[in-house]
Amino acid sequence: MAHNLNNRFSLLCQTTMSYLPWVWIAVVLGCQADPVSDPDSMNVEQSLVFPLQGDHVHGPTLAVLPNGDVLAAWFQGSGERWADDVRIMGARKEAGDTTWSAPFLMADVDGYPDINPVLYLDPQDTLWLFWYPVLANQWESSIPMYRKSTNYEGSGAPTWDWQDILLVKPGDKTERGIQAGDRFVREVQKQLDAYESYAREELVSGYTSEEQEQYWSFWEQYARKVDSLARGENMIRKGRIYEGDTYTSTPLGYPLARRIGWQTKNKPVMVDGRLILPLYSDGFDASLFALTADGGRTWSFSNPVLGGAGIQATIMKKSNGGLVAFLRDNGPPPKRIQRTESHDGGMTWSIARDTDLPNSGAGFDGVTLENGDWVLAYNDLEDGRYDLTIALSKDEGATWVHKKVLEHDDRGNEIGTSFHYPSIIQDDNGRIHVIYSYHMKDGSNPSKSIKYASLPVEWVY
């Protein structure tokens, strides 16, 4: 990536917003069940990061720093993609403390919505912040960006050393239009063919006739859309078809749809010195993985993962060196968490098959524990976000025999509080940290915050 792109967006001055000092409170509603009713007895810490307020706050992320501080970030403003005042905010909980600092600014491309921050502390103790501004107030116009810092243990926001745009360029060269045999087009078609075979032979076999009709209606539209976007049919311009040293002038598609619109949600993983960042596209209804082995100076890209409209992947590590990613189901019901696998360090991924775990079309996250077990934080529901469950697998996702409810509102989907879009990590001491959006739906005003929980790993077992 050309580093002079950094000049397009200057690093912003660090600012601190004037919020009232915040001490931990517990919000107890008349008919709301709190499964973790006595946190102290279980060594579970829970707190709102800031008091309930009126802004839309969502998409939280966190990192535990080498000094023990917990750094959190989220996006905040009057809406999401349609609100140009949305920016990335953050707060800090110092080591040994139970209260959070006043929120401070983490990133803001002025005049554009800034969405879905992702914090990640790499093995060299460099702190990364990924997020994306939305250029034209539609998800398809998103552009992923990142910042890096090695000076982050003071008060307030980190001091950012570097910022750049993550330009996504999958497939072959397209200087004169998308050519016959283009690698991205081939990968899309391969995924679509494989997924259709899986759907016919396995996926819909247990569906009702109504569900099958709904599914194949979705599939026909989905496959047509994805194939068209891959071929650049939404941008037909003058082009050239090359045959050796000669060419024929003809209108061809150009790859705009595959190069913009990629979004962030969950943290990367590091495998053999290579950082692997999950990306997704609401335009393609697909996932992709960006890889760098040189600290973000250059990037390569996996094949797209297509078929079930799986997005917002979270990556797990297998004991044999393989990778598994679980995806949010943005397709038709019945909705399930989806699973894709890679056996070559994240460059090639299988189609994403349904698991038995329900998914209400909400984001979730997972982490590979230091002992090799896997943990997911997700809404264990097919509809709604009023339950937040922590599930553990000791056999790399084959079964999830241990499930603990972290949050539940027995008023249900209509007015029950939403506990959603979690981020989960494990620190060097083995403790699990979870952060998630906390949105009340019962008419309360103000109604929104970000909530944090810290759990001993034994709590999950």
From TrEMBL:
Domain Sialidase: 68-162, 265-434
Pfam families named among the record's database cross-references: BNR_2
Protein name: Exo-alpha-sialidase
Species this chain originates from: Membranihabitans marinus
